[in-house]
Amino acid sequence: MSVQRWIHCGLCNNLMVNNETKFYHLSCTDILCRSCMGKTNRGTICPICNGTVRHFSELGDSMGRREKMLYHTSPTGFYQIASQTLVFQQKHRRNLVQAILKARDSLHRLDELETQIRQKIVETQKRYENMRRFRRTLQENMRQTITSSDRRNPPAASLCPAATGRITQRRISTATSFVRPELVTPVQSQRRFSTDSFNLVNSVKMSQMNYSNDSGIGITPSSNNSFGSSGRPILSSTPKTITPFRAEALAQRPLRAKL
């Protein structure tokens, strides 16, 4: 413990100049020199305050920590350390308070967003239910419409299945029997006309022969004189003799222009 100029005896006011003079610290926080300690009634009563002395200790390194702190050389340093400590702690307390306030604001905002989301969910559920009902209504209306149309207009197969079968058969037969018409040239038309005339004459002769055989009267072929004697002209438009046409002669003849 270093010597300090303010340490003195509270009874005789002697200063602690060097370590040769011993001073004592009493439990009542009074200081006495060694000569004045004889007036304490064997260390039981303080002559300065007349208080009871529970214990005393010599000033030096043997004192306790609490007593040494009272004799600190620079007590203002405690204030500096205390002020720095207070500033440091106050800074972090302020940051903590700001973080708490910010978290409260965020929680309030989150509560508002949660409320809005719940409202949106309720509205979406209502819209979904309305759409389901609307879809069911449309399906029911479509079913009723289809049922009523089926009742009003029964299918044709249920009314007359035979007729429909015939119609389809006719359509199939007409579709299959349809043949594309061939192009007919003037030469082919003239040949076809001569062939048809020849067939007509043969059919007339055959019918006359069949008629004579059935009646028993023979019909002799008559000449032009007999028809002429009777005065009746021959009204047949068919030629007596049919000569076949030659393709070379027809090709040499110029074709008549169509009117």
UniProtKB/TrEMBL annotation:
The RING-type domain, residue ranges: 9-50
A GO cellular-component term linked to this record: synaptonemal complex
Methyltransferase recorded as keyword: no
Single GO MF descriptor: SUMO transferase activity
Cited InterPro entries: Zip3/RNF212-like, Znf_RING
SUPFAM superfamilies: RING/U-box
UniProt key word Zinc-finger: yes
PANTHER family linked: RING FINGER PROTEIN NARYA-RELATED (PTHR22663)
This protein's name: RING-type domain-containing protein
Organism: Anopheles funestus (African malaria mosquito)
